[in-house]
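Take a look at the protein record below with the fold in mind.
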Amino acid sequence: MGIFAIVLTWPRFRAYCLNYCPLLKYSIIICKKQTCLCNPIEFLRLMDAPPDSFLLTHEPLDLAIAYAAADAAQNGAVVLMSGMVRNQTGDRQVNYLDYQAYAPMALRVFAQIATEIRNRYPAITRVVIHHRLGKLTVGEISVIIAVGSPHRAEAFDACQSAIDTLKDHAPIWKKEHWRDGASTWVNIEKIGQSMM
């Protein structure tokens, strides 16, 4: 089969490139050079997939890119939710968070979330799930969910469902590092049980 190059326009297709190429069997991403190398059979198969966007990255998340990925001509609403690092949990001061993930399974969970949303709300046009990994300080965005739909009620419900399902089922783990030097893993047992 081999590998071939598809040159994409930067930054318009950045989210698309980062979204689909990590899912391919043979993939190399060189987005800084505006080139995306993919297995051609898998790439063409994905061209028929719903125009959703799933991303795990160590780079800062971009609200404008997520909104654009959820936007479509048939939309009457795009609901976007961003989760961010707060300065405290309970009565403890947060220094920073560290997110880790089992990426292949997390991306499959993102796709399952989109499928479940479409089964419940067939008119949904786009589902966007972008999650940050690594060290995040107070105020940084950790997750963006965006849903496009002809009607706002379905978009709100779908967005709520997506973030709730992601927190319960995606293999993404958060470690809170406190100002006093201690650290704690959060909900690691819950995610582990949902994977079994």
Summary: The CA atoms of residues 100 and 157 lie 27 Å apart. The mean pLDDT is 79. The longest helix spans residues 103-120. The longest strand covers residues 92-101.
